[in-house]
Specification:
The protein is an alpha/beta fold and about 130 residues long. It has five helices and five strands; from the N terminus they run E-H-E-H-E-H-E-H-E-H. Keywords: Phosphoprotein.
Length: about 130
């Protein structure tokens, strides 16, 4: 399994963030984390990283339901940033709404839609 260099978690739930980081550490999933509590903060920081040609996260775990900017607002703006470096996005949410699942499929950057909580097995699939 290939270890991820930087994993980015965009989620406003501190319990989910804590638990996900813990599982990632136990799985030896990644070297480091970036954590944002809303889509707008994540967008602004990731846009600056892209513009300055700094190291981007290899993987983004994106929640849909957050304050300020939700996951959809983040995605709609993030895909507008010119970037030729690969970033894999997984939507990790509590939403089981079929409309959300379908909408996620319309974004090329979204690799999968996973309903919380995330498991060790799902993390291992991401590392392949």
């Amino acid at each position: 399994m290939k270890k991820i260099d930087i994993a980015c978690i965009i989620d406003d739930d501190p319990i989910f963030v804590f638990g996900t980081k813990k599982i990632m550490q136990l799985a030896n999933f990644c070297e480091s984390f970036m954590v944002f509590h809303n889509g707008k903060d994540a967008y602004e920081k990731l846009k600056a990283i892209i513009i300055n040609e700094e190291k981007l996260p290899d993987l983004i775990l994106l929640d849909l339901n957050m304050p300020i900017w939700d996951g959809w607002e983040f995605l709609d703006e993030f895909i507008k940033i010119p970037n030729d470096r690969p970033v894999t996005i997984y939507i990790i949410t509590s939403s089981v709404d079929p409309a959300d699942v379908e909408k996620a499929k319309s974004y090329d950057l979204v690799s999968n839609y996973i309903v919380k909580p995330i498991t060790m097995e799902e993390l291992k699939k991401m590392m392949v």
